[in-house]
Amino acid sequence: MKICVMNNPSAPVYEQIELFGKAEYDFIDLTIEGPTASLDVKRVRALLDQYDLSVVGHTDPCIPFAYPIKGIREACFKELEHYAGIFSDLGGKIMNIHPCYNSPLNLKQDLIEQNIEALIPIEQMASSLGLTLVLENYMAPFDRISTFKTLLKEVPGLKVHLDFGHTNIWQDSSEKFCKQLGNDIMHVHFSDNRSVADDHLPLGVGNVDWKKAVSDLKMIGYDKTITLEINCNDHTVLFQYLDISRRLLLDLWNR
C-alpha cells in the first residue's frame, strides 16, 4: 500500500512537491485543473526524481466530456489528451476521470449512455499512452454498483477509482464496492465527512468507519495507492492533518 497526497491546483505545484517529498510520502496525486492547467514537465519530473516520488493522474472534475454536442466533446477530449500526455511523461500509470453530469434536461435520462459513448475513445487514448483510466464514484447515478458494472462492461479497459468519502454520503457503501468490484479497484481516496457534504476532513474527524474501510480493502487484497484527499489552505495545518491521518491509516493497516 502506497500513501499519496494531492496538490492544491490553485497553488504552485513545485513548492508542494518539495514539501510532500520532504514529508516522505510515496506518491503525488497530481491534479491539473483550470484556469491555468499547465506546468513545466521537466521541472516536475526533476523534483519527483529528487524525492523518489511517483505520480497518479487526477483530472479536472468540471470538464463536460460527455456533453451531447460534438464540438464540446472534441474540445474536452483534446484537453484530457493534454493531461494524459503530462501524466505519461511523468511516469504515471493511472489517470482518474470523474463522471460527467452535464446534459440538457430533456436528455438527463440518457446520462449513463452519454458517459459510455464518450469514455470509450478517452480510455483508448489513455491506454495508448500507457495509462489505466479509472472512473471515480460520485453522485447518482454514479454512486451505485449497477451503474459501474454497466460502465465496466461497455468500456473495455476502464477501472474503478473508489472514493470512501463519497460512499459515506451517497448510495452504495464502500463494502459493496469492494465485495462486488474489488478486482477492478485501481486507486482509492480517503477523506472524512459527516454524511452530509464532501468535506475532505482529516481521518477520524467525521463519521467514516476507518477500521471497517481498511478491513474492506484488505479483504480484497488491495495493495495499491491510497490518497489522503484532505483540504486546508494553511500548509502548516494541512501537514498536521495529513500526519494524523497517515498515522491512523498505517496503524489500522498494520494491525
Descriptive overview:
The chain has 255 residues and is an alpha/beta fold. The protein has one domain: TIM Barrel (Alpha-Beta Barrel), CATH 3.20.20. Helices cover 43% and strands 16% of the residues. The chain contains nine helices and eight strands. The chain has an eight-stranded parallel β-sheet with strand order 3-2-1-8-7-6-5-4. Helix 7 packs parallel to helix 8. The model has no long low-confidence stretch (mean pLDDT 94).
CATH level-four homologous superfamily name: Divalent-metal-dependent TIM barrel enzymes
User: Count of DSSP helices?
Assistant: 9
What's the total count of β strands? 8
Categorize the overall geometry: globular
Share in β-strands: 15-25%
Structural class: alpha/beta
Query: In the CATH scheme, what's the topology name?
Result: TIM Barrel
* Main sheet record: 8 strands, parallel
**Architecture, according to CATH?**
Alpha-Beta Barrel
Unreliable residue runs: none
Give the strand order of the largest sheet, numbering strands 1, 2, ... along the chain.
3-2-1-8-7-6-5-4
* The CATH C-level class name: Alpha Beta
The topology string of helices and strands comes to: EHEHEHEHEHEHHEHEH
> What is the average of the pLDDT values?
94
Distance between the termini: 14 Å
